[in-house]
Design the sequence.
């Protein structure tokens, strides 16, 4: 039987506050390093540049609310362009890869400066390796923890601002001096923390409908908090007498001066953990975009191969090694900031410009003009970085060159060979199975992850004892364990082969199998939802083979299932 590739639309489960937490992980952390970098570059005139930077952030954020509306199935630079211009989409994706790599390096290094460690670079390298190792298992609860830390960090920053308010009227602000070229160069040096909105745009394909409303509710609160607080804390920073240094931990210096050293320590710890969360998000972003490119045959197919936890293993290894290498060669915040900007500004420039030039989408005249204006401003920023920051230009060229070489190899030497004949099953979605209830109705659901003959034999006996002759067999694929921008997923060859074998084995007992395929990060919850929708009365499952460590990071499947089942549905564990 020929292999049947079936594409199934991913469920739209990303709520506005979850998307907002992801965005705050990038934009929110920018306060931790942008303030210090701005003061190092412009001194007491930094408040003015921070104000312009905040206005640019608002402009870009507003443009992305437009992009999220017109591209509800993926508005990131790669997902929005891959059906129009593959070369341009690949270039944008490679620049975004450069950005994510430096985001991981910059965020981790800044975190350990706030932790006040003796060797921040060494600790940062070790932390990136540890985060990569944890992601090998693909933790499913990290988003909740990041949201909690983000809320605490935001509250602590707002409280800090509250203590600075009485001093703001007495600040002696200085306007920038020198030539326009000098001040423009300083401004370009602080154009940071824009990649979070690209990550949000990538996720429109899995956002709760309507996407326009969900994306706006995610973007605007974070956008206003970051833009206003960064600017106002920048003014407060300039009021500190005899301020020197603190490029790496300016929030600590502001808190120490306006409140007390204990508050400086507390806010440092909170933002350090938030920065580590941003590192985790950046690594996942790297894995995600390489996975999507691999699926489109723009990178070797090895980037789509998953480990047993549903994580693309090669993409994760590369996503862990590259930020460590970046830190090995560049280990100061100002230098990393230059590397960071060239990637994210390039990717966003391509996305905004391409959207403005796309006359097939419904844009108001003022919206298109706004996209043109934003893309032109960012283009000037990108050109300035390329001319002035030669290390950043070299870094971007290396990333793009390596990516294009891998693309060529993937299309020339690593072409996927699709087998003509393999065992297969025509898998169904839950909605399709509900449509077939009049033909195939069963009160049994078998949850399976690997071949388990005892589970199948015992279930067959129970089905026969109840006078039935069919069963739903559900395979939940933890694939991928990253928030990929792909809005459609397909069953793996392994899942189809397993369902085919189960179908064959159950047929020996005279049982007709209705094979179901689902995907998600919480298998137990997904199985329980399936049982409820199909109105089954008994769910059978094999004893868990997961270790305690895996259960800690990914959740206990049996506990999730038991808690999610309805009271009149029985759970039978065979093992």
Sequence:
């Amino acid at each position: 039987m020929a292999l049947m590739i079936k594409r199934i639309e991913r469920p739209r489960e990303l709520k506005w506050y979850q998307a907002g937490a992801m965005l705050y992980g990038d934009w929110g952390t920018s306060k931790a390093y942008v303030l210090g970098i701005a003061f190092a570059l412009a001194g007491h005139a930094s408040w003015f540049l921070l104000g312009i930077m905040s206005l640019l952030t608002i402009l870009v954020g507003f443009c992305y609310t437009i992009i999220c509306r017109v591209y509800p199935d993926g508005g990131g630079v790669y997902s929005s362009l891959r059906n129009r211009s593959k070369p341009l989409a690949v270039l944008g994706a490679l620049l975004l890869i450069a950005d994510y790599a430096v985001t991981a390096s910059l965020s981790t290094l800044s975190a350990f400066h706030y932790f006040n460690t003796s060797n921040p670079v060494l600790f940062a390298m070790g932390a990136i390796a540890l985060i990569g190792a944890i992601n090998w298992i693909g933790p499913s609860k990290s988003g909740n923890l990041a949201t909690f830390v983000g809320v605490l960090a935001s509250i602590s920053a707002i409280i800090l601002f509250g203590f600075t308010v009485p001093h703001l009227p007495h600040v002696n602000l200085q306007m920038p001096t020198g030539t326009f070229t000098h001040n423009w160069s300083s401004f370009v040096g602080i154009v940071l923390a824009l990649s979070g909105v690209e990550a949000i745009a990538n996720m429109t394909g899995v956002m709760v409908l309507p996407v326009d409303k969900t994306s706006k509710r995610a973007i605007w609160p974070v956008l206003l908090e970051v833009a206003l607080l960064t600017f106002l804390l920048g003014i407060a920073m300039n009021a500190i007498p005899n301020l020197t240094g603190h490029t790496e931990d300016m929030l600590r210096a502001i808190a120490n001066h306006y409140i007390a050293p204990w508050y400086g320590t507390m806010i440092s710890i909170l933002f350090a953990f938030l920065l580590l969360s941003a590192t985790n998000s950046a690594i996942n972003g790297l894995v995600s975009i390489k996975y999507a490119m691999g699926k489109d045959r723009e990178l070797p197919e090895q980037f789509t191969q998953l480990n047993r936890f549903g994580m693309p293993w090669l993409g994760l290894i590369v996503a862990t090694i590259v930020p460590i290498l970046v830190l090995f060669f560049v280990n100061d915040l100002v230098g990393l900031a230059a590397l960071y900007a060239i990637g994210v500004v390039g990717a966003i420039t391509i996305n905004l410009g391409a959207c403005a030039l796309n006359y097939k989408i419904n844009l108001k005249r003022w919206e298109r003009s706004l996209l043109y204006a934003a893309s032109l401003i960012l283009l000037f920023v990108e050109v300035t970085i390329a001319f002035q920051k030669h290390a950043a230009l070299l870094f971007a060229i290396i990333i793009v060159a390596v990516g294009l070489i891998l693309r060529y190899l993937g299309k020339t030497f690593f072409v996927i060979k699709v087998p003509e004949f393999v065992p297969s099953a025509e898998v169904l979605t839950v909605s399709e199975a509900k449509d077939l209830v009049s033909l195939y109705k069963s009160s049994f659901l078998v949850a399976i992850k690997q071949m388990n003959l005892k589970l199948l034999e015992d279930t067959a006996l129970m089905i026969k004892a109840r006078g039935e002759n069919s069963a739903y067999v559900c395979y939940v694929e933890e694939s991928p364990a990253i928030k990929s921008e792909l809005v459609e997923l397909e069953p793996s060859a392994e899942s189809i082969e397993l369902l085919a074998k189960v179908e064959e084995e159950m047929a020996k007992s005279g049982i007709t199998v209705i094979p179901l395929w689902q995907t998600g990060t919480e298998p137990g919850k997904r199985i329980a939802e399936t049982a409820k929708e199909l109105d089954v009365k008994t769910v059978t499952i094999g004893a868990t083979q997961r270790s305690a460590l895996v259960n800690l990071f990914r959740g206990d499947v049996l506990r999730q299932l038991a808690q999610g089942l309805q009271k009149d549905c029985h759970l039978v564990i065979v093992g």
In short: DSSP finds 22 helices and seven strands in the chain. Residues 1-5, 418-424 have pLDDT under 50 and may be disordered. The longest strand covers residues 470-477. The chain has two domains: 13-412, 430-574.
